[in-house]
Structure formats: structure tokens, C-alpha cells
Write a structure and sequence with these properties.
By secondary structure, the protein is mostly helical. It has helices at 5-30, 45-92, 111-117, 135-150, and strands at 34-37, 41-44, 98-100, 106-109.
Length: 169
């Protein structure tokens, strides 16, 4: 779990402020007065104040954590919606499209690419070209991918594609 340092220091500061407030109120204002409460009996005023401050602090902490949780869930849902939209957009393009990470593993593709090489997306994603194509073609694809990653931009070249049924185009 990733800890937000601003939040961490905010609660450290809140704790120190709570202790400082208790010391000031106890020694300056209350001077160990005793308060009689129903159901609790006799309680020192400083203890009563600390209980109220603690409950308030926990309430603030709970509200803050709930807000962070809501933001996390909401941002996850938003990312999922965006990913779905982008996949639909890619699938609407009639040209075969795929994309890879820096380790040359397929991260995704569109429906046209699946149809072109006659493989399902689940058989493509997280695999390298060496796991999908014959070695003599994979070497060529890998070299072109490396060239493109080293020199980003547009890349156009002709090559043979091996389909899952062994047919080459």
C-alpha cells in the first residue's frame, strides 16, 4: 500500500497538536478539576476533554480515510471506463493495430489484428513476438520494434506475417 507522505505528516502534526492542547488546557485552565457525569461517575476535566478530542480526531480521521477510499474507487472505475472506450475505439479501426511495452511484450491489440493473425487477444497479450511467430519472422519483427522504440515516430516496412494456421501472408 502506498502511503501519502502529506497525509502521514498531517496526522503526526494533528497528534502533536492534540497532546499540546491537552497539556495547555489541563495545566492552565482546568487545574485537575473533577466533573461528575451520569453513567461515568467522577472524571477529571482533563480526561473528559481528552476523550472528546480523541473522538473528534477519530471522526476526522475516519472522514478523511473514507474520502480517500471514495477517490480510489472512483478513479479505478474511471480508468476502467476509459480503457473500455479506448478498446472500442481501437476495434473500430479496420487496420490491424497492436501495442507493446518496453520489454517488447504485447499489451493489447484491436479486433483487426486478431483476425489478421487468426489468434485471440488472450493468446497475444503478455507474450513476445517470439512466442507468437516463427523465429525467422520474430527476429525481423523484434529488430523493427527495437528500432521504433529507439527512434519514435512513424515506421513503415513490408514483411511476412505467419497466421496461427501456418499460412503466411
Amino acid at each position: 500500500m502506498k502511503i501519502n507522505l502529506k497525509i502521514f505528516w498531517l496526522f503526526i502534526l494533528l497528534g502533536l497538536l492534540l497532546v499540546l492542547t491537552e497539556i495547555i488546557i489541563d495545566h492552565v485552565l482546568l487545574k485537575d478539576r473533577i466533573v461528575s457525569l451520569p453513567y461515568f461517575g467522577d472524571v477529571s476535566a482533563s480526561e473528559l476533554l481528552m476523550r472528546v478530542l480523541l473522538v473528534f480526531s477519530f471522526w476526522i480521521f475516519g472522514a478523511f480515510v473514507a474520502r480517500l477510499f471514495y477517490q480510489t474507487v472512483h478513479s479505478k472505475e474511471k480508468r476502467e471506463e476509459e480503457a473500455f472506450f479506448l478498446q472500442q475505439l481501437l476495434n473500430a479501426i479496420p487496420a490491424p493495430i497492436f501495442y507493446k511495452d518496453r520489454k517488447y511484450r504485447y499489451l493489447g491489440c484491436n479486433k483487426s489484428f486478431e483476425d489478421f493473425i487468426k489468434k485471440k487477444e488472450s493468446d497475444i497479450v503478455n507474450k513476445t513476438v517470439y512466442e507468437i511467430a516463427p523465429k525467422y519472422l520474430a527476429d525481423e519483427y523484434h529488430d523493427k520494434d527495437h528500432e521504433l522504440l529507439e527512434n519514435p515516430g512513424v515506421q513503415i516496412y513490408e514483411s511476412t506475417v505467419s497466421k496461427s494456421d501456418g499460412e503466411e501472408k
